[in-house]
Each structure stands twice: as structure tokens, then as C-alpha cells.
Design a protein that fits this description.
This protein has 196 residues and is of the alpha+beta class. 35% of the residues lie in helices and 23% in strands. It has a 5-stranded mixed barrel with strand order 1-2-3-5-4.
């Protein structure tokens, strides 16, 4: 009768040891200018909405409160992977300090092993303080004093518009006709003024 609970305990211990071996292990980092130089964009903001991972990335739209480094509009999208050991859930209403690199002009890709950290109302829950050696407020103070606050990009600058859109059939015909007329005009002017 004692063999069944003993087998259960052994299976549980084996599962737990394998799971802990595969757990997230990020390299330690310290709060410094050198650490900040590793990132292209650093900001503090609240999550407005979250789209869970579809094909490859999830999306969290932030309302940036303080922009410390980089260029971004007031509302900025952060892409994140869900299928990694270090994945943490983003929830609307949470406040984060994000350290990231741009994926495109108007979004960044989250690296879960960056210095990014969430704000906790209860300081006892802030496991980042143990890992990073400083609390959330010390981090904000450091960023404000050493990097300063930057202006947001206007929304019109952030939108790339349809610069890479394929022209319609009518636009293609008009471009072709104008190009052909320009070539004929150039040929006529060249032959008129540069005869050999």
C-alpha cells in the first residue's frame, strides 16, 4: 500500500526537477547608463489593450507616460512572444517600465530578459527588486535623472501612410503616359539643341 504514494512522490519530484531546470534564467543586469545603452527605446506606461499571441506575436498597446529614450507616439505597440520560458502575462491597466528595441518604426519587440519590469502595488510582491537590486521608484528616479524625459512623436509622423502601396491601374497608366511624354520631350530637346 505504501508503494503507490511513494511512486506518486517520485513522479512529482522528477516532474518538478525537470520543470525547474527548464525555467526562465535571464542573465543578471544592473541599473546603469551602460545597461540603458543596450536598448533603443525606454519608457514608462500603462497598458491600454492586449491582443494575445496569434501567428507569432502578441501585442500590448501602451499609453506612454514618460519617454526616456527613443522616438514614440503617446500610444505605442509592444510585440511579445508567448512561447518562451520567461513569458509573463500583460494585462490591461498594468504599469510597466519597458526596455526594448524597435521592430518597426511604430512598435518594438519585447525581450522578456530585458530590464523591463511591472509596477506592483504591494512592494512585497515585486520580485524584480530582488533580481535587479533596486525598487520600481528607484528605477524611475534613475531614468528621469540620467536620461530625462523626451517629447512624443506627433501621430502624423508615426504613420507611414501608403508609401509602399501598389498603385491602382489608373495611376499606373497615368505614370506610364507621363513618363513616355517626358522621354519624348527630352529626346526632342536633345536633338534640337545638341546636333552634331
Amino acid at each position: 500500500m505504501n508503494a503507490l504514494p511513494l511512486k506518486f512522490v517520485l513522479v512529482f519530484a522528477a516532474f518538478f526537477s525537470v520543470a525547474s531546470a527548464l525555467a526562465c534564467q535571464c542573465p543578471p543586469s544592473s541599473l546603469s547608463i551602460d545597461e540603458c545603452n543596450k536598448y533603443e527605446i525606454i519608457f514608462k506606461g500603462k497598458i491600454l489593450s492586449v491582443k494575445t499571441c496569434g501567428d507569432k506575436f502578441g501585442e500590448a498597446v501602451f499609453e506612454i507616460e514618460d519617454l526616456y529614450k527613443g522616438n514614440a507616439s503617446k500610444n505605442f505597440t509592444v510585440l511579445f512572444e508567448c512561447n518562451t520560458e520567461c513569458y509573463q502575462q500583460f494585462l490591461a491597466g498594468e504599469e510597466w517600465i519597458i526596455y526594448s528595441r524597435y521592430k518597426q518604426v511604430n512598435n518594438a519587440k519585447m525581450d522578456w530578459c530585458s530590464r523591463s519590469r511591472k509596477f506592483f502595488n504591494n512592494e512585497g510582491e515585486d520580485f524584480y527588486a530582488v533580481n535587479y537590486g533596486n525598487d520600481y521608484y528607484d528605477e524611475v528616479k534613475f531614468l528621469q535623472e540620467n536620461l530625462g524625459r523626451h517629447r512624443f512623436m506627433p501621430d502624423s509622423v508615426k504613420d507611414s501612410g501608403d508609401r509602399n502601396a501598389i498603385p491602382s491601374t489608373n495611376q499606373t497608366i497615368i505614370l506610364f503616359v507621363c513618363s513616355l511624354l517626358a522621354i519624348i520631350l527630352f529626346y526632342w530637346l536633345f536633338n534640337k539643341y545638341f546636333k552634331f
